[in-house]
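Before drawing any conclusions, I looked closely at one protein, both as residues and as discrete backbone shape codes, quoted below without any editing:
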Amino acid sequence: MREGCECELLGERVPQPPQRPAPPPAATGPASRRDRPPVPPSRAVPPPAPALPPPPRVTQAVTAAGKEAMTGARPCAAEERRSRERGSCGGAAAEAAAGGMNGARGAGRALAALLLAASVLSAALLAPGGSPEYGAEAAPPRDLDKKRHVELKMDQALLLIHNELHGTNLTVYWNSERCYHCSFQVLVNVSWSGKPGKPSTAAVAVSTQHGSILQLNDTVEEKEVCRLEYKFGEFGNYSLLVKHVHNGVNEIACDVVVNKNPIDSNLPVCVAFLIGVAIIIAVSFLRFLLSLDDFHNWISKAINSRETDRLINSELGSPSRADSLGGDTQPGGWCPPASPPRLRCVDTFRGFVFIMGSSIFLSMTSILQRGCSKLKLMGKIGWRSFLLICIGMFIVNPNYCLGPLSWDKVRIPGVLQRLGVTYFVVAMLELIFAKPVPESCASERSCFSLRDIIFSWPQWLFILMLESIWLGLTFFLPVPGCPTGYLGPGGIGDLGKYPNCTGGAAGYIDRLLLGDDHIYQHPSSAVLYHTEVAYDPEGILGTINSIVMAFLGVQAGKILLYYKDQTKDILIRFTAWCCFLGLISIALTKISENEGFIPINKNLWSISYVTTLSSFAFFILLILYPIVDVKGLWTGTPFFYPGMNSILVYVGHEVFENYFPFQWKLGDNQSHKEHLTQNIVASALWVLIAYILYKKKVFWKI
């Protein structure tokens, strides 16, 4: 989830909420559907995926996330010194190194080449000039009606409203089908032309993201003339004809006519998807070839690994492979204790709050088993939480786009800040009540079938108390000017009754404790619900539910260790948790988007959002655990490489997102295909950077 500040200085459009006019007079036509209960902010957008980039593989006793978050262990210095000395060996040593090259190394380099090739291919297929959206003849100009000076932007269409009603002035109101319980907004006024037989025309841009509801009222008599729902296509040209129908009954008809067909906005995504499928097929075929001895031997002879290393080092520099970006150099003879086998599938989700909990438990268990004292571990937990919070506040703070950062405008909550607080609470909770992991008891009849839960009853009690606090504050805290227990978006939601109640108690607590200037200024609810107050989706109250979600991840980690080497028991428990959390979500939401007791909402981090995402997390673990850890059919590539440097990749993306080659000036800033091309290239470059750092054994730990 990106919370970057949308500034004109960066070339981005800042959605400016229009003035909220008075709602139109009561409709005399069909009954309105706008009498449902309130809804949380930004209900128009389905909940996105969690903030950090999802890396690949799973752990086995200590995940890569756990190492980075808890131990800070570095590669063996002696081993790395031998690796550097290979470049100065004689020809015989080079031949031996080349002959010992394995298939995984070749596949990794081939993957990097394929990623760059995919970026080039995407750019070639989606770049201007070869655009599938516009042909030489069918290319509609953005200002289809130049006389009316309507310039269309992304996700907009041109609507020409023709008023053929004699002596009648029309007011056109607009609303989005996705804007739940919203009041109508004035779109345009269309006056009578004053000349019989000659219609008056007004041109206006309408949104194409969702279906539109248009209501036309007689301006003078303030009564509804007609009402219709229509889904406009991007950059299409439409006419709305309002006229009398003489069929024995004096009726008014409102018909939509397509003057020029819209473009296919989904075509660039389809092209990118096909490229992705082609990459997967190519990588799978390459791995199959590398598994053949004859082909492997031929490749080994054709590639001189020593020469490749020399070229890379001469061009890119050769940083010390024993040094990480976040720590001191260790003595040359020191090498960390060998870690247990990794559960690769856990890494596949690293970066999400859920899997952070799994990593905390797995890594902490490994550290305690090596004899580290709890007091020392507490210090490490506090220090790393502090670093995460500082990085989020002072390095990736979105308010930098307003100029030099000052305390008067600094945003206090944020993605890394929430991760830091969540990590601290969950890690300390597990450390305080840590117990030795019981030995495998597959052959013992007296084993508890729920020992992963029974042994953690103090932690569960604490989590239930936290959740009770969230429920109590959310539904019983009095909020000035707002109904108690309000979960809606404010703005024009709920027919505009509570414009300054965005987020209910969650928004009120943030504004009360942190101040309006220290929280996010451009919430997603402002786009659809035209909200005017600041609201932070990473606020204080939502952090409680992120802690709950991380603890559910801890539960997944306990299942992996408590039932180690018992694949059937692990899969049964993943299935049980998936179904249990899914049933809770069904009960809370009533299987609806807006009608449930607690609707799913990411901006609020509602408990139904947490149970739903956790249910899916257990489901994906259920699928990937046998594929990655048991059968070894997939190693997690290419997500594995960003996963080994997830903090570096995330911070690097936030800092350098506006720099070339991750971003450049687009030929058409309102084109989906050009934005998609830019994002594909940027993603491929970050994967390539992560791959190079992994091969160089350069890791940024905190």
About this structure: The two ends are 22 Å apart (CA to CA). The CA atoms of residues 647 and 687 lie 13 Å apart. The chain is about 45% helix and 10% strand. The chain has a mean pLDDT of 76.
